Amino acid sequence: MRPHILDRAYIAETDEVELTIQCPSCGNEKKLKVNPDKLHSWFNGMLVQNAFPDMSSSDREALITGTCDECWEMIFGDARWSTDEIINREA
Ligand SMILES: [Zn+2]
Fold it and tell me: Contacts for 48-51 with beta carbons within 8 Å, 24 or more apart?
């Protein structure tokens, strides 16, 4: 369902989940730490921008599709999708 998320590891000291995300275009892996309650909400259908309102667009993109910054630049140049387009794409 979300093949770009390779692994999830709970970090008790900081109460975070560390996700291992693999870019589907280049295969580079990236670690992303998120709040476990928010991650749970997102997995259960909450829109990513509601579950993670403070997350950068780059990290949201990694979470949703796994696409890394380098591949974004290569494919789309400076034309990042707006939040609205991400909402529509995820729905
Ligand atoms: Zn990439």
Answer: 48/86, 48/90, 49/83, 49/86, 49/87
Tokens of 62: 């990694």
For residue range 56-65, list pLDDT tens digits in order.
989 999 999 9
Q: How many Å lie between the centroid of ligand 1 and the Cα of residue 28?
A: 6
| pLDDT > 90? residue 75 | no
How far, in Å, is the centroid of ligand 1 from the Cα of 67?
A: 5
To the question of pTM greater than 0.85 for the whole model, the response is: no
In DSSP notation, 21-63 reads EE-TTT--EEEEEE-HHHHHHHHTT--HHHH-TTS-HHHHHHH
Q: How far is the CA of 30 from the centre of ligand 1 (A)?
A: 10
